[in-house]
Design a protein that fits this description.
The chain has about 300 residues and is of the alpha+beta class. The chain folds into two domains: about 90 residues, Phosphorylase Kinase, domain 1; about 180 residues, Aminoglycoside 3'-phosphotransferase, Chain: A, domain 2 (Alpha-Beta Complex), CATH 3.90.1200. Helix content is about 40%, strand content about 15%. The chain contains nine helices and ten strands. The strands form three sheets. A five-stranded antiparallel beta sheet has the order 1-2-3-5-4, sandwiched between helices. A three-stranded antiparallel beta sheet has the order 6-8-9, with helices on one face. A two-stranded antiparallel ribbon has the order 7-10. A hairpin with a 4-residue loop joins strand 8 and strand 9.
């Protein structure tokens, strides 16, 4: 076990004891605001701040709902969860077998199957494309103040468009919320699997489709041929929809503020964060640009 702070270990031990699991031999995978631990026997423990209690419970319920509808997804352990501690909320999951990022084709296949389901009978909340963006901008101290003000103005404009209502589009469905190849995994044994269900909600299916469209039209991560195949498999090209600019703008803003937030504590990402801002501000010519991934 790597050396970690005592409070992290205490939270892990208390949570495991609550569901009759043994925390001995646990390995810290990530210790940050959200902690991830690996227990012997292929069990993953996720520990989040207490204010994530509702979303943690929803993730577990959504994962079980997906499984009951034949959608491959991360599997919660068959224990009563989440476990709520004084200042933490904890969930338990089966470790995912050997895997890699999925392809754009697999993302299209997964989304077509997901969006074909009827809405669940329990409350999964409604999509908020702008969740945590103000907090990210507040934390983005590596950016010049004038750039942060500009991004905040863009956020306010996009949110106003969202609140006014989107143009008519596809019927609202259960959406993944962050549908990119890192969350649609290709399993070494074959097939794909959905993970990271934190943003799962009711919303326009276009929000899931915009992720791949932006990777093609904005960041050059997806080629034109790959995007054409994506649209052929799913059966719809979201870039032809009148509301594309609103949701694409929201997705781009999320990608910029994510990089800016991480650049504050890690100087190696400062140039990339500033580059993304410069692109949106028209300092780097027209789309598509080239954005490097933030790990």
């Amino acid at each position: 076990m790597i050396n970690v702070a005592a409070p992290a270990l205490e939270a892990l031990r208390a949570a495991c004891a609550a569901v009759a699991l043994d925390a001995r031999g646990a390995e810290a995978v990530r210790i940050a605001e959200n902690q991830i631990w690996r227990l012997p026997g292929g069990i993953i423990v996720r520990i989040a701040p207490a204010d994530r209690s509702l979303s943690a419970a929803r993730e577990v319920r959504v994962a079980r709902w997906l499984a009951s509808n034949g959608i491959p997804a991360v599997k919660p352990l068959p224990v009563t969860q989440p476990v709520e501690l004084a200042d933490r909320v904890v969930t338990f999951w089966e470790q995912i077998s050997l895997h890699s990022h999925g392809s754009t084709e697999e993302v299209a296949e997964a989304l077509k199957k997901l969006h074909g389901l009827p809405l669940p009978t329990f409350d999964i909340g409604h999509l908020d494309p702008f969740v945590r963006i103000p907090e990210r901008l507040s934390a983005a101290q590596a950016l010049p103040a004038e750039d942060r003000r500009w991004l905040m103005s863009l956020y306010e404009d996009l949110q106003e468009c969202w609140s006014a209502g989107l143009p008519a589009g596809l019927p609202w469905r259960a959406v993944h919320g962050d549908a990119w190849p890192g969350n649609v995994l290709r399993l070494d044994r074959g097939g794909w699997l959905l993970m990271d269900l934190e943003r799962f909600s009711v919303g326009p299916p276009e929000w899931d489709l915009v992720s791949t469209a932006v990777r093609a039209r904005t960041t050059s991560a997806v080629t034109a041929a790959e995007y054409d195949t994506f649209c052929e498999i799913y059966g719809h090209d979201v870039t032809t929809w009148a509301g594309y600019g609103i949701l694409a703008g929201a997705r781009e803003l999320r990608m910029v503020t994510y990089a800016a937030q991480h650049a504050t504590g890690n100087s190696q990402w400062q140039a990339q964060a500033q580059h993304r801002v410069d692109c949106l501000r028209g300092r780097c010519g027209p789309r598509p640009w080239r954005w490097t991934g933030i790990l």
